Structures are given as C-alpha cells and as structure tokens.
Amino acid sequence: MTTTRSRSDRQPAQRLPVARVCVDVPLAHLDRPFDYLVPAEVEETALPGTRVRVRFAGQLVDGWLLDRVDSSGHDGKLAFLERLVSPERVLTAEVARLARAVADRYAGNLADVLRLAVPPRHARTEQASTPTPAVPSRDLAVVGSRTGAEEGDDRKIAEPVAGKGDGGWGDYPTGPGFLRALADGRSPRAVWSALPGADWAAAYAHAIAATVAGGRGAVAVVADARDLDRLDTALSTLLGPGRHVALSAALGPARRYRAFLAASRGQVSVVVGTRAAMFAPVDRLGLVAIWDDGDDLHAEPRAPYPHAREVLLTRAQLADAAALVGGYARTGEAQQLAETGWARQIVADRAALRARTPQVRPTGDDPQLARDPAAATARLPSLAWDAARAALKADAPVLVQVPRRGYLPAVACVDCRTPARCAHCAGPLALRSANVPPACRWCGRVTAAYACPNCGGRRLRAAVVGARRTAEELGRAFPDTPVRTSGRDEVLAAVPGGAALVVATPGAEPVADGGYGAVLLLDTWALLTRSDLRAGEEALRRWMAAAALARPAAAGGRVVVVADGGLAPVQALLRWDSGWFAGRELADRRELGFPPAVRMASVTGVPEAVADLLAGARLPDAAVVLGPVPAGDGQERMLVRVARSGAAALARALHEAAGLRSARKAAQPVRIQVDPHDLF
C-alpha cells in the first residue's frame, strides 16, 4: 500500500527559509508570530509584507508574512505555507511596527490592527493595476521605494506652489516657520487653533505641499466625507492631479484597494482620508495631520478601538515625522500635547482674532434679561430674532444650529409633563410630523390613542424640538424667505449667497458664500447637560464649528448663543479662546483623575466574565479599580485607572488576562477598551 504525505508533514530535502506569519485569528493567547517553511516554488515571491494562507489548528486561515529568517527556534516540525495569496507586498515595515505599537497601546491583538490597516484584497483591481517590480530583499523597508526621478519631481513641487500663497499660515506668528520647517525636512509638531472663517483645507494642503517639496510623504485624516471632499479638492488645486489619493472605507472595495495600492507601490506620496487612512503606507513619511480631533468619528468602533489621533501621534513618534493637530476648538488631549512641550501652539494674535471673529452674544446674561425677561426660558429670545431679521434684511443667509434631528423627537403630557412612553417597550414616543400619531423611537409601534399613565391626559406637548420642526416654525415666521435643512439624511455642501434660513444639526452645517450674516445656536442645554465627561468640550467644539462660518463682526456677522454668558464654554466662545477652556478642563481632570491626565481602561461584560478577567490580571500596584456600573443587557462595566507612566503595564496585564481566558475557551466575551472616547 502506498502512503502519501501532505505538505505539512514533508521534511525539506534542503534547508528552506522560514517565514514568520501573523495568523488572522482573533484570540489573545495566539497574539504572536508563528513559523512556517517557505516552499521552493514561492521562495522568490513570498516576501515580507505579502498575504499568505496557512494551516493553523487544522484549519486554513489567512495571514501576513512579517519576516523571513534562516532558522526557527521551534523544536518540532514546521508546516509549509499552504499558499501565497499574492506577491503584492501590502504591509510595509513602518506600518508593521506601528500596528504592533497600537496593539500594545490598546491591549489588543496584532491581527485585529492589521485587519484595520490593510484593506481586503480585490484581485481584479490588483491584477489590472501596474505592479511595482518585486525587490528580492527580506527587508520590509524597501516596499514602495521610489526612484530618484520621482524624488526630484517632489522637490519641483515647490515652484508651482510658490505662487499660490501660504494657505493662510501667515495669519499666525509661528505659521510661516512651521511651513519652512516642513520644507527643510525637519519634524515640527504643532497644535493649531484655526481662526474663524479660515480655509483649513487650504492650510492643510500647503502644509502637505511643503512636506512633499522637502522630499517626504504625508498622511492627513479628517472626520467625514464632506471634509474629505474639501481637502481632496484643495490638494488637487495645489499639487495637480495624480499626486495624492483619497482613502475612505465608503469608496467601496475596488476603489479603496486601488487607492491603497497607489500608496503602497509608491506611486503617490500623499494619502488623505477618513480614519481608514491612518495606517496608509506612505514612503518616507514626513507629516501626519488630523483635523478636528474631537469628532467622535475618529474613534474606531472595532477592536482594539484605536483613536485616529493617537495612532497618528504614535506614528509620528516612531517615524520621526512632523505632526499637526488642528481644529477651531481644542481637545484636552491636544492641550496636553502643548502643555507638556511635545507640540508647539500655532495661534493668532489678538489683533488678527478681533478682525476675524463675529460678534458673539449670549441671551442669558443680566443685560439681556433686563430687556427681555423671557430670554431665560424662550427657545428663540428676542436677541436671536433681531439678529436673524437684520441678516435677512441685509440679504445674508442665517444658520440655525439645532442639536436634535427629526420633528419632535420627544413628547410629554400637556397636563402633568410626564414623558410619553411606549406601552409595549417603554421607549420614548416621538412625532415624525404634525399630521401623524406618535410612534415609539425604539420599536416603531404607533400609539394613536395615547393616554398618560400618570393623569390620564391625552394631549401631548414638545419635550424636545428637532430640526424639521424648527424649520417649519421659522418658515411660518419668515414666509418670504427660503428655508433649507441639512442633517444626517441630507447634508448640504454649500449655500449660495442671498437671504435664506439654513437649519442644520451639528456637523452638517454647510458653508455659505461670503459667510453667514447670523448664526443662532439653539437648545444649548441639550449639549451642556449630557452625562458625558466631554459635555462642555463637545458643546464648545460644535458651537465654534458653526460660529466659524459667520462673517467677521466688521462685515455684520453675529452669533447668538441661547445660554447663560457666565458658563465656561460660553465664555470661551465669547473670547474665541478654546485653549483657555481646554487648559481649565485638563486641570480639572488632573485633579479628579480622568483622562487624558491618566490612563483608564474599561472592562465590559457579564459580571462573572468581568470578575474572572480582573482576577487573572496582574494589574500594576498603583492601579485603582472603580465600579461596577450597569452597562445594559445584563452587563456591567469596571474601570481601571493608572498614572500615564503605568499605561503600558496596564495594557499588558489586561491583554495577558484576556489571553488566559481565551486559552481556557471562556464562553462569555469581555470587551477591553483603553481610554474610550465615550468613557462616561
């Protein structure tokens, strides 16, 4: 009888190279490279950075080839690589080091980070594109290296850019120096507080162009597709076509992979995009940049839940690259970078600030209450009406920011003010328009004959007013003025000049030609009273983003914030000084022991699983365990706090404890998040 032996059981007739592979298995106890023999038929093409298929625990799984070595430290028999998926080297040395650092920072697995860093393969796109010739080297650093002619092209970019201004950096005392440092090949790190009306996309494009002129590449990350379109257009105008790619998960598999290949093959030196671009493979990285780092869209919702800002800052540290963190408002994390000296501030002087800011007025201070006693309770006090009328009379558009979308997202009993709830699931009832009965926001059931369980009343009143109801009310108040809405369902890109009312939810405010004559910030209580550690910071960020679209005060621009002028976020808006507010917030968090002054990890799961993980974790001696608190669906959350110096030890302890549970095949999962964006 003839016996056949599989490739996994064959012993090589001669010494074959060994491949170290990261297998795509999401188990913490398997978070390490595994050694495989490289078959002779793929020895020249199975290079570091390629995708492979391997046998692992009896199954055929995907993997990334991290390294090639002459021998293995494993004493037993080594299996062969089953298949080389593609000779395309999609993982560079720089991104591999970054992925390992991010996994360690967030107590995660390397395979999970690589799944975020390298998009799924699209074979047809890969075969249709012109590949870069394979370099027979075991060093990942050569992937995507460019020729001397292309390097010369980068330096020539300074000539066409020289006649297109400086993108507004001249409005800041240290702005021109920042551009010169980038062009000279240095690695400055900056926290930029943008002036109202600043064309931030043009400023970022000039910073990127200066980096390219110095012979290096750049990666810039924005929050959403609208911001990406602005930055993409600015770069195309400044650098010309074909010098950069826009990378976003919303592009679809083929277009996203095509853009990724252009970067990994060194065909472009600039990548911009949403958080999908934070791991983009750019050769000779010289600048990482992020705009509006406080936006929650920068937080990755998949394990290990990294934040784009932290990934880019880690990348700048490892690659010795420049870093730019910009926005109209400043986060506590950005303030900490400035206070510790890791980055320098780029801010305008007071004269430039006075010339560019609109007039900002609150409605809840004493002078306003003396003139209008209803200003403290009215949704649209007389000051806001007057500002809107004056702007419309001057043939200028008016922006109205409303925190909630929909019509009436929450209603209550007219007689006793008890919130209206669904009789089936206890979810909140809402009105989608004026002519339909209330419906549950959770289960969707319609409640045509609602009766208050407290008093028996059948009439409902608005508890929260949404953007569509606001637009309806303004349309009745200004019948001859067009009213437009901009929200999650339909985002307006721009508004032409002329009298118009634009009702928008935060983040969906369109840019107006020439700026808005008035900006009204309504329902500020909805932002300020959120049960969130970042409530004040987030409110100020959203207000400043809207107020920045107004005309300067000298041109008639007015901003009315319906809030008490004595509140700290309102004071920061009045003075246009988010750095002062961020410093105040950071000082409070240091005193109370909240991030970013400390490192804090969240452990969420069923109580038994959470207790099991923490019992097996060798936490640092100074770690403080807080909780438990309910997390919904029968789960609870525990918080573990350490000083920033103990961050690495905390992440390592939690990862090792997760590995012990996965090795025991624990049935109940536990979610570990380090410094989650929505901590409270």
TrEMBL record:
Provide the cofactor list for this protein. Zn(2+)
Q: Which residues form the Primosomal protein N' 3' DNA-binding domain?
A: 20-119
Q: Name one GO cellular component term.
A: primosome complex
Q: Which UniProt keywords apply?
A: ATP-binding, DNA replication, DNA-binding, Metal-binding, Nucleotide-binding, Primosome, Zinc
Q: Which GO terms describe its molecular function?
A: 3'-5' DNA helicase activity; ATP binding; DNA binding; zinc ion binding
What remark does the entry make about the cofactor? Binds 2 zinc ions per subunit.
Similarity-based family: Belongs to the helicase family. PriA subfamily.
**Name recorded for this polypeptide:** Probable replication restart protein PriA
Q: What is the lineage of its organism?
A: Bacteria, Bacillati, Actinomycetota, Actinomycetes, Micromonosporales
